[in-house]
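Protein modeling request. Please complete all fields; requests missing the sequence field cannot be processed.
Requester role: graduate student
Desired output: 3D structure, token encoding
Chains: 1
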Amino acid sequence: MNMANWLAASAHLRPHAPALLTGVRVDADYATFARRAAAVGAHLAQNYGVRPGDRVGLFMTNSTQYLECLYGIWWIGAAAVPVNAKLHGREAAWICEDSGAKLVVLSDDTLDAWADSGAPATLATLSVDSDNYLRCREGEGAPTPLARDIDDLAWLFYTSGTTGRPKGVMLSHGNLMAMSMCYFADVDQVRPQDAMLYAAPISHGAGLYNFPHVRMGARHVVPESGGFDADEVLALGRQLQDVSMFAAPTMVRRLVDAAKARGENGDGLRTIVYGGGPMYLADIRDAIATMGQRFVQIYGQGESPMTITALSREWHGRTGDPRYLERLASVGPAQSVIAVRITDAEGRPLQAGETGEVEAKGAAVMLGYWNNPKATSDALKDGWLRTGDVGRLDADGFLTLSDRSKDVIISGGTNIYPREVEEALLTHADVREVSAIGVPDPDWGEIVVACVVLEDGAAANDQVLDAHCLASIARFKRPKRYVYLPSLPKNNYGKVLKTELRQMMAK
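Delivered output (507 residues):
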């Protein structure tokens, strides 16, 4: 099964349905989308020697051409290597060389970074903004995608590399199909009139959600800005209607703030799927109060993309349930093709309510890491993916995450989970953002330090925040220090960089 077959099917069933949009402008219907993909694939094969199983790097910003290229690559049986467009050119070049890419597709706004990357001149490039590309997509290609097996490589995703060089996560056509089936079963239904908005990078989770929308012949919308602008997203929702999107929790927060400022409620935004980082209870309650019941939470990793657990729209709306807030603070039960368990330090399964490492197993879990058997054997044990996340399952199968295992603070021999501290502080009206980290201490081993971003006009007051913490968490968990910052350091996807905070505190 080649995932490009879904595009071919929609082109036959809904040839004139709008497919690719930039803002509100339609760039292509489904017949044109499929024809362009086939032509791009033929061009890659004929002019760059791309063969089935070869890898093609994509170092480009969001655009409708991105989707044309992805499907062109799959049309001829090759594999895509999407690269974060905000990476340094040398980082992008390392990924493309490590993957053995036959070709790297760029956009004009990544040309300079690539020129300074030090990549070998023998590595061919093609810009989607060039006349060459515009001509090639108007050519002819094979009428149907090349047949692929379920375990053939489709998407080679490189992890962020926070603990060393990035690792290439091998996702097969079967993995991507399983993920897409989970979207239909556990996340949201898709109708032909719906639209998927790519305000987050197509190179990552947002891009993976193209598949269920291609299968149903829905619209694919890239904002005019090419990225996330809260006011632009709200405007596109009103103009296009039935819009769904994937957003990191920090993006949700900015969207809610913009809606409040404009006196809006997100009209036209049908579903906002959030994930990729911790969503605090205070923030999701504020989001629901402002924008209504249009939220779904997913928990996954690149190694099991978007597919470990999901907290459905239904559970977000069960306000009368006696355990509503507990459910809302969780990341939901396992998705349909995944089994989830909690294990101790020796890998032994734990009982409901006990805290340990989250493990996942199922049809969406990666094939392994590219050319890295040691990392693969460390991550996969009897098919179980060791996520490195800490959490607990309740008796009904709802997973509540504590933290990444590397972020747990051990103070006086006791484990303290930063998220508990952060949840407590975020309920204070003066606190806009917070990240709790462990800092070395000669007496305690580590102490809890709260890095706090205050609301505009709020004054720093350790005593007030300390008393607020003591009202909801144990005394030993409260921060020993409060550090007030204008903002928290984040990566390109909105995740707080705790490593950078620890470095700041060490100075």
